[in-house]
Here is the input.
Amino acid sequence: MQTKRFFLWLPGLLTATSLAAVVFFLMIDYAGANTLVVTSAADDGSSGTLRWALLQAAYGDTITFDPAAFPGTQPVTITLQNINNGSCSLPVLNRGSVTLDAVNTWVVLDGSACADNWSSALTVSSDGNVIQGLEIIHFPGSGIFIDIGRNNLIGGSLPGEGNVIHSNIGNGILIDSYNQPGAAQENIIVGNIIGLDRSGTTAMGNLGDGIRIQQSGSNRIGGTNPGERNLIANLNMVYPPERLGSQIDIIGLEAVYNVIQGNYIGTDTSGTKSMSNGYHLRVERGVQFTTIEGNLFNGNGMICLHGDNNVMIGNIIGLSADGMTPLGYGDKAIEVGGSNNSIGGPSAYERNVISASGSGIAIVGDVSGNVVRGNYIGTDVSGENPAPNNTDGILIMQNPGESVGPHDNIIGGDFPGE
Here is the structure.
């Protein structure tokens, strides 16, 4: 039994003469967290299975995989069965602070036997959970679905902590508070491979988006540490039929203050080979205050800034990780269809390199207040060698049928570097 002491400061119960405060000491005893070990690749809910472990797990518990049954040298597949009220989904992570640790193993969760058309492999509905080291494939829903919860960690910055998520009909990772806007916030997705195989060199795709954030804010995708980099290369597929899947899609009025940082998007693990096309990143209408910083994008896709008050700094678009070699020529690199967005800045750190694409930046529609400054457009990262876009460097265009086009936007500035 462990004992934890909490200090509760109550500045009440004061007397006129002493102005003394009363401090209460609350002693809480609680049982130490348990480790549950998965020893079987079956999915019948019996003791030792992953389904059993998830049902048994309490707050603060850790689930690991026996290396004798799940060695890291070869894949061991858990094919999920339809035993959860007609769904093959595993039990929901709803206790909080449960760690699902498959690091140093090769555990594959396979949804190919699912009979329904909605099951996700893992659903998170609580705070502080950790999911690491899994390969998740062939589910009719998403690989991982967070609908409620804060401070959940999907992946990690150390070798083997990231998840590999591909070949699912839904999204790779879905953070969706559509039914309860704002219920899922402040989650962290780092070090994962989404849409490629385990080696990060073969495109596999997910039929939906690589990562989709809907009505959810203050989430972080990637980070400044190279180990936090997500590798996201979703294939250009159609789901639902009326829209193209994206590498990352951000949707909804509650989707504010999300950070997309330090990822390789549309490339292989080396950042030297283009692996996808279509939409790289969609910041949809109503989305605000997104920070898009220090990412690498290939030149075959498009970044759509259709929301307002978003910031793009320090990204390389259309070139390899060294900032020198073209990585495909697609349509527009960036399409701005919202207002008050900022692309680049006066410092070298804020500079985006936007090259080897169709057009560099297109500002379209009745939008205003956008600022584009300090970027290298059509050159390599040094600014000294050409890496031209196919058509325009910057295009400002009125949409057909609209009476008002872009207005009051700023391109460049009065000072060097702008």
